[in-house]
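Human: We require from you a standard protein entry with sequence in single-letter code and fold as tokens, and nothing else.

Assistant:
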Amino acid sequence: MSLELNSYQTLVFDCDGVVLNSNKVKTQAFYDVALSFGHDKAQALVDYHVKNGGISRYLKFEYFIEKILRLPITESLSGELLDGFASEVKGGLLQSDIATGLKELRKKTPLANWLIVSGGDQDELREVFTKRGLFELFDGGIFGSPDTKDIILNREIRVVNVQKPALFLGDSKYDYQAADNAGLDFVFLTDWTEVSDWKEWIQLNRIDAFNKLSDLVNN
């Protein structure tokens, strides 16, 4: 397929699985931080995480505490899980492969506003992107949890930071739902996704797909 990138005023990128090859980093971190409660409960959290890719860690740990551990949510337990997860993830994000072709894609779309809209923690994302020399590419800003992608997109559309036509580049079903809810076009990237049934899913929903970001440069 061919995609007219220059027709878009805004490009919105998910982070994990799109800009950074970090999906497995976070999946492993969810397992490790929950393992003290037993393998079965840790695996249940991983299963929920993979099934709900793109949803923030805050919501996933709420689910873990309430539905898997069947405990009341307390500040101490929630904080312990979140801190442990953040500690494991940050190092992985600093080491994860960066998508090839990212800077070439930026040169190909010089007039487009670029944003990160991720389920990852916003402060963590901004720190990692600064350390990895990626911050300057995203002139529209880097946004993440605790706000959801729906909240972020609606807000940034309202303040005219996201101008249409706009394109969302994602690797999860939630990315597609958030883009669709906000009236953005969507492209699914397959190379690093953890969506196991993605082939059937994109065909069913008639979603355009590329293997990776570098494919967009030469399309």
Summary: DSSP finds ten helices and six strands in the chain. The mean pLDDT is 94. The first strand starts at residue 10 and ends at 13. The first helix runs from residue 23 to 34.
